[in-house]
Amino acid sequence: MLPEVYTRHRLVPAKGFADLRVGDLYPLPSRTLGDANFVAFQAVSLDNHPIHYDGEYCRALGFPGPLAHGLQILCFTAAGAGTFPHEIGTALIGMIEVRARILKSVFPGDTLYPLLEITELKPQRTTGLVTMRASVTNQHGDTVLDGEHVYLLRLEADATSDASG
Fold first, then answer.
1. 3-state secondary structure 91-133
2. What domain count does the chain have?
3. TM segments (predicted)?
4. Does some domain include residue 159?
């Protein structure tokens, strides 16, 4: 059972697996990428290729600036940035699969709009699989990333104990 302080400060009402529906949308906060995003990702990924960090190198190749790393764009689809994991609370066991296709380049100054959408719900004996489409569009409405997340949930989480205090 979760501490009462958690239940008093719950961001959204609790949902169990049975409450989820195909088509449920989970928009994530938009972000405009700046130099700090590129520097932070370089520090985490240890990727030192100049295509991601050297503006002059990129311009010499015909790009307007450094290209965001594909994994960096994928990171913006983290469910924890939105309400989904707060809704399902203790039912969440974890993310068990992720796939993504990078469709367009992303540069400093681009604004990204990530979105998760439930596309499949597969109940099992004691757990369930939630498949979500993960997409990211830019300020021009172009899809720059299209992918999928799969989460494993308990079917019978203690949703009532963490839903009210």
1. HEEEEEEEEEEECCCCCCCCEEEEEEEEEEEEECCCEEEEEEE
2. 1
3. none
4. no
Range of the domain at 29: 4-154
pTM of the model: 0.87
CB 131 within 8 A of CB 120: yes
Residue 164 lies in a domain: no
How high is the pLDDT of residue 2?
67
Q: How far apart are CA 28 and CA 111, in angstroms?
A: 13
Using CA atoms, how far residue 152 sits from 35, 60, 133, 155, in Å, is: 35, 45, 15, 9
pLDDT tens per residue across span 74-132 = 999 999 999 999 999 889 999 999 999 999 999 999 999 999 999 999 999 999 999 99
End-to-end CA distance of the chain: 11
Say which residue the tokens 């989970």 belong to: 26
Look up residue 147 and give its two tokens: 């992918």
